[in-house]
Amino acid sequence: MVDPRDVTDRPVLSGTHVRLEPLAPEHAPALLAAADDDEVFRWLTFLRPRTPADADAMVSRYLDGPAVPWVQVDATTGDVLGMTAFYDVDPAMRTVAIGWTWLARRAWRSGVNTEAKLLLMRRAFDDLGCVRVVWHTDARNERSQAAIARLGARREGVLRKHRLRPDGSWRDTVTFSMLDDEWPVARAALESRLTR
Length: 196
What we know:
32% strand, alpha+beta, eight-stranded mixed beta sheet, Aminopeptidase
């Protein structure tokens, strides 16, 4: 069993491209600046923040909900680039989901997302002793599905009418997972890809 206090602890996780810092209310203005493209929020279950009040509400939703959230910070410039989190945390089953993620469009295809996921998987598998890490994504979001598969996760299936989209339509959710015995191979592949 994983100690629930350890799972909800949010240490700074540092890499070459990205640093994950515990989300705090004071990050709201920088997150609003990073949220500058509708395409970033196309498949999320909440709308893009457009005002300071929207950004404050988004941060509060992450902090007040069941998530364990971080901000994604450019390791070189210090610019805030987006957010990510653990959620569906189950210490008894030693399982977490990684998601609630969004990243400024300018950071797409930069290595930031891959390294952020690597840092979170290290936290889950190596630090917390998880046996399973899960991802969920909209069935229509093919780009996200391909990115999750590139991490080494396996597609498990589709949860039908799993979430409501902001427009009120039902979202089918594709579920992926990685197990602890699959992690060493995936970790080596991701570390190799990031050094190229």
